Amino acid sequence: MEHKHSVEPIVRVKNLTKIYGSGETAVRALDGLSVEVQTGEFVAVMGPSGCGKSTLLNMLGALDQPTEGTVWVAGEDLSKLKDVDRFRARTVGFVFQLHNLLPTMTAQENVEVPLQGQIGSRKERKERAVHLMELVGLADRRNHLPGQLSGGQRQRVAIARSLANSPSLILADEPSGALDSQSSDEILTLLAELNSSQGTSIVVVTHDRRVAQATQRILRMQDGKVVSDHRITDPLEEDLRMFAQSQFGQTLLESSRTLHRFVEEQDLAALRQLLLTYDDGAEESGETEAPSSEA
């Protein structure tokens, strides 16, 4: 389902810089980053460890403050928030790799926690939590403790909890990173369904190409900057793009002498040309030739 984009993006980041420490040991986690996310988008942020992905997510959730630059979420300038706790409770929902459920509370009670102080009566909070447990497909597990649930089920509860106050934006940091492939696929399907049916804007940080390919748009970061930004239009093209950016793909693009022992020169040249089409670095430097329009 394609969502109509509003005039005002759900996320607007301008010249965002974050420096940890000072002097020679200073670390520039974000380096003049600018990006927008439209309302209703499902966006993946990828890149190597230490590139600034989680730092960006923390900035969007008002969990950290920038050294320079501005961050707007749902029309609010986060540097001018009067009530940060209220913003976190009502505007943004968080899903982390570790679900962070309270072990002595049932699944339903965990979902009710963010509703404290937001919805008046105990009855209303219970009704809201029951509805959310149904939404994530765990109505029959709502009275179970976290220790009685599988990893995938616990993460579903965490997603239900993140939706408690109908946030405008869900921020997910490696939400399937600790799960097996089947549970991971189920979580991705659930997030995609929530994006489609509820119109919830989602930004997910991930190392997993399968997670990224389940979204609508991929931002790739490196050294605190966005180095590529593209919408997913075709699964095969996305597979080729991922392959081109893999270590093996980059080896092919560098035309390693070792590979000539196994691949004919003309075949290697053809493969390199195909991968160049989907290599973002080559794209930016102007090395990519336009793909043929022939069928």
TrEMBL record:
One GO term describing the cellular component: plasma membrane
CDD domains to which the protein is assigned, alphabetical: ABC_MJ0796_LolCDE_FtsE (cd03255)
InterPro entries noted in UniProt: AAA+_ATPase (IPR003593), ABC_transporter-like_ATP-bd (IPR003439), ABC_transporter-like_CS (IPR017871), ABC_transpr_LolD-like (IPR015854), MacB-like_ATP-bd (IPR017911), P-loop_NTPase (IPR027417)
Presence of the UniProt keyword Cell division in the record: no
Gene Ontology terms for molecular function: ATP binding; ATP hydrolysis activity; transmembrane transporter activity
One Pfam family this sequence matches: ABC_tran
Protein name in UniProt: ABC transporter ATP-binding protein
Organism of derivation: Caldilineaceae bacterium SB0664_bin_27
Domain ABC transporter, residue spans: 11-248
UniProt keyword Metal-binding, yes or no: no
Gene3D superfamilies linked to this entry: P-loop containing nucleotide triphosphate hydrolases
Keywords: ATP-binding, Nucleotide-binding, Transport
